[in-house]
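Exercise 3.2. Students should predict the tertiary structure of the chain below and write it as structure tokens, then compare their answer with the key that follows.

Predict this chain's 3D structure.
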Amino acid sequence: MVLFRAFIILLILTFKFNNSFSQSEWQWQNPYPLGHNLHAVKMIDQNTIVACGEYGSILRSSDGGITWMIITLSGGQSLRSIFFIDSQTGYITSATSPFIFKTTTSGLNWEQKNTGASYAYLSVFFVNQNTGYACGGLNLGYDNGVVIKTTNAGDNWSISLTDSVGFTSVFFPDENNGYAVGYYGTMYKTTNAGLNWVKLNNISYSLYSAYFNNADTGYVISSSVVFKTTNGGSNWVNNIYGSHLSDIYFLNSNTGWLISDRRDVRVTTNGGNNWHSFSVPNSFEYINSIHFFDAQNGFITGDKGSVYKTNIGGFIWEQLSHGTTFGLGNILFVNSLTGYIGGQGSLLLKTTNSGYSWNSTSIGFNFPSYNSGIAGISFPNSNIGYLLVDSVFKGYLLKSTNSGSNWFKIYTQNNSFQDVCFINSETGFIAAHNWSGSNSILKTVNGGSNWMTVYTNNINSEYLRSLIFINANMGFCLNANGAILKTTNEGNNWQIQYTHSASLSGIYFSSALIGYAVGAYGAAVKTTDGGNNWFSLQSNVTSLLRSVYFINENTGYAVGGQQYQQGTIIKTTDGGSTWVNQESITYEALYDIKFNDNLEGFIVGSNGTILRSSNGLTFANPINIELPNGYFLYQNYPNPFNPTTKINFSIPITQYIILKVYDALGREVQTLVNQKLSAGSYDVEFNGSNFSSGIYFYRIAIHSDKLETGNFTETKRMILLK
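Answer key:
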């Protein structure tokens, strides 16, 4: 099963207090299009869709959901509601800041508007170009509810209504009549454009969404009941029962849609008198929002980046989002092309194209996804590999002799296996923990057929993890009490070389002498004499660091963090003397980091997170599995751009590609691609952060060798506009 179909993803970050753009070093690769929960979606037209969610994430598609632009608002905003007045002007609310964000470019750019009051805003609605309302409350909207109003297109806001209970939804069927609903059955109505509000006390349920066809007929939903009124809210009847109701939308007085059971869509064509339920395929995550452009075309979005589309009125849904959401714990590149990612249960992902795409590959055994997972991966050469599986207080070692195509069990023990390291095809080590309290390092010299214990301790808290060998003689192992164990005789004897006050989790050596270890509370240590002595580094973070990796003597990364908090990525360019906290673009816990031979980095984490970095380098990314029927160089998108744009090209056979950028005077400013590529379609990113505004040209030369003459050449123009 292919987990990641390749699509174009543009990652744009919008920083506070200005409308400029810059690029994070790390981009989402899985899940696609991203892994954040999406709370709201709007169809501007049949092709243009905008969605928003956690971590300031805004998705925008201009081709009906085939490709997506990712726009990230700074500050880790929790974005909850979208409203578009027309095809260009729209608003988004934040539940974690006093800001409402406005676009006048159909969602391409967003301007921050300060409401003047620090409430969590959960809903926004505009009745015309100038007049709009938003509602929410304190403590993520639960308490001290407020409805605010603008009469100058969002530039200024004033308080229209307050209550001790938070508001969740505001809706105006016309310019005068409006409704605001909230927790514990809170409901208000205005008939004079918010000048005065009357409290309605007819429902005792907490209400989460409201929709009105006109001033008299409308619907509100709790988590389990849809209520309908036909007399302006004076009376309400139970229209339909369900569970986990989250959103409702009506196209007209008869046709409407409801999200029910968090995984079903119900459809009515007679004003809610009857509802018909249709399941959303492969919906393992909750869906949160629904919107239709017309009677046929609609979108729904949900948790972990879930996106679905229908073009037949909601009776059948097509899943546009994809990729595993199982936790991913470790990653290993065997060579420049082949790599593996180990995950929950029996999940093993494999790449044969340097990490551009990852496929799920069978290991031949089904381990439960709960309390089981691949704890370690070791390939002493490209053919022979070992997988360490930790499954409910029992450890398994699997072996492959054909580059991971098939796996078989070679060793089982009633211990928790923590890590595996083979220094050649025959000699390897396992770090194991017995829940009765003992910890051990096991060694094999015959490819895993037999094992002997070479180290043990009986201190329960000192369970072992993170095995690494620098050469055939020297190796290291960490334990949970902050100790670094070292061997200098092929692992036959181990002794504690250093103990840190914090637990250590990850270790890496950039050379035989220089090594690093990281752990809890931002702990980081370094050795410059082969591990005999270690000294502390200032990581400038306090979160748990789980993995560390250096791409050269000076440049390295460490990752960690806790789930549902900001994932931690720190970087050093001076051998660990100073560390910079990078934008991680995710709330997921990050477990491991590796770089391939092309210096392209990958981070894996909880809920299927795979982040990818080019480390400042440019690379051609495959975007289509179908073979093209000719040579094509496409116009860059977006154009004009600031500061990043994508350039797509296609080749029908394997050939050498040179793609360069020139300024208006014809001077070469950057080489984007200079490599041999297989037949297919590719995209490459050009970052103009270091260049001035103006006209630039990009030229492609396609040929069978490295000479810039050959089968196909073409030049196109692009505009950098800052």
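Discussion points: The chain is about 0% helix and 50% strand. The radius of gyration is 28 Å.
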